[in-house]
């Protein structure tokens, strides 16, 4: 263990990186399939079937990354796990209800008698919406240091709305890739409408985060940090411009550029996440508990790391395989 240096230093950093990676992958992958659910009321019956088909092979695998992130938080940073989930108990419970409702509705809508199918469609939308709102609210409270005041609750509501719009937006960009014809045209329209919400959400989080504490403010606005970090907001502006231009020119005749909005949105999510990670490091509970204070014993972390290095490639391999096998336009989803 000592050949790598002090395990009490590098093991917590390694697990913080793995947990952050899991959350980021979850936000992008489950973000688009939650977003497809949020967009459900805007589509007709046949379009809803096509939308379900576009996420059918992926949605349950996407949620594996949430399980991975929470599992790593529990075993690697048990003190932080207790603090965070205690503070966010109610929104976590609401999120789980939404996920359960969504999973049940996904299966039952295909098996229910025709008159009841619309009920399960509504419940699929409700589960997707509740999950997205709960995750956005938790993000806002986490940024605000898990404090419950009128200001932090208001900010949590703002991030809940913005993240839901963000999920709807990335869901629309996914549909641009996976569909064609009238539904693809509709998806482009939904994405155009949601672009303003993406800009407002990124701006709100970016402007609020540095003012959570003097420490974060100094990390962003001291010299030379300010100059080194300047590419983050500049690249974000660039990807917003790419989105705006690409959405104006889609759908194109040969469907060569339908992947651009999804790729640009994913890049925006990565940049936003990188900014948050930089702001809060080395804290896992903002301004209260660092990754080093919250970490399990180095001996425990080393054993967990061995298990993680075995499980993680399997999850990545399974995900890559499913996206490769089911590439191309979505076709009819059948259960027989």
Q: Nearest-angstrom radius of gyration? A: 21 Å
CATH C-level class is Mainly Alpha
Q: Secondary-structure element sequence?
A: HHHHHHHHHHHHHEEHH
| Helix percentage | over 70%
State the major sheet: 2 strands, antiparallel
- Number of DSSP strands? 2
Label the overall shape.
Answer: globular
Q: Under CATH, the topology is which? A: Formate dehydrogenase/DMSO reductase fold
**What spatial order of strands do you see in the largest sheet?**
1-2
In what range is the share of β-strand residues? Answer: under 5%
Secondary structure class reads mainly alpha
Mean pLDDT: 86
What is the CATH architecture assignment?
A: Up-down Bundle
Domain module tally: 1
Provide an overview of this structure.
By secondary structure, the protein is mostly helical. The chain has one domain: Formate dehydrogenase/DMSO reductase fold. It has helices spanning 7-38, 45-55, 59-62, 64-76, 78-87, 89-111, 114-143, 150-178, 181-208, 214-221, 225-229, 231-248, 260-280, 291-294, 298-325, and strands at 283-285, 289-290. A two-stranded antiparallel sheet has the order 1-2. A hairpin with a 3-residue loop joins β1 and β2 (289-290). α8 packs antiparallel against α13. The protein is globular. 38% of the residues are buried. The model has no long low-confidence stretch (mean pLDDT 86).
């Amino acid at each position: 263990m000592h050949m790598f240096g002090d395990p009490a230093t590098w093991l917590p950093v390694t697990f913080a990186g793995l947990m952050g990676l899991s959350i980021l992958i979850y936000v992008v992958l489950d973000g688009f399939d939650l977003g497809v659910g949020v967009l459900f009321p805007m589509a007709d019956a046949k379009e809803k079937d096509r939308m379900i088909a576009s996420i059918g092979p992926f949605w349950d695998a996407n949620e594996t990354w949430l399980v991975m992130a929470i599992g790593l938080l529990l075993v690697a940073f048990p003190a932080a796990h207790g603090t965070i989930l205690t503070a966010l108990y109610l929104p976590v419970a609401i999120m789980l209800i939404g996920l359960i409702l969504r999973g049940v509705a996904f299966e039952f809508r295909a098996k229910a008698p025709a008159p009841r199918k619309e009920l399960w469609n509504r419940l699929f939308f409700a589960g997707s919406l509740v999950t997205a709102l709960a995750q956005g609210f938790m993000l806002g409270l986490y940024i605000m240091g898990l404090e419950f005041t009128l200001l932090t609750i208001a900010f949590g509501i703002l991030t809940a709305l913005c993240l839901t719009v963000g999920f709807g937006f990335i869901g629309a960009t996914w549909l641009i890739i996976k569909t064609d014809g009238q539904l693809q045209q509709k998806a482009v329209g939904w994405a155009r409408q949601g672009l303003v919400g993406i800009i407002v959400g990124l701006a709100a989080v970016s402007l609020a985060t540095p003012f959570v504490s003097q420490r974060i403010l100094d990390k962003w606005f001291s010299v030379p940090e300010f100059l080194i970090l300047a590419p983050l907001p500049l690249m974000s502006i660039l990807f917003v411009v790419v989105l705006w231009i690409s959405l104006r020119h889609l759908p194109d005749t040969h469907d060569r550029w339908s992947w651009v909005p999804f790729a640009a949105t994913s890049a925006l999510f990565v940049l936003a996440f990188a900014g948050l990670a930089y702001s809060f490091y080395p804290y896992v509970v903002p301004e209260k508990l660092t990754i080093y204070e919250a970490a399990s014993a180095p001996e425990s972390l080393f054993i967990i790391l061995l298990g993680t290095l075995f499980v993680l490639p399997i999850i990545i391999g399974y995900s890559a395989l499913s996206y490769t096998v089911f590439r191309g336009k979505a076709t009819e989803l059948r259960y027989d």
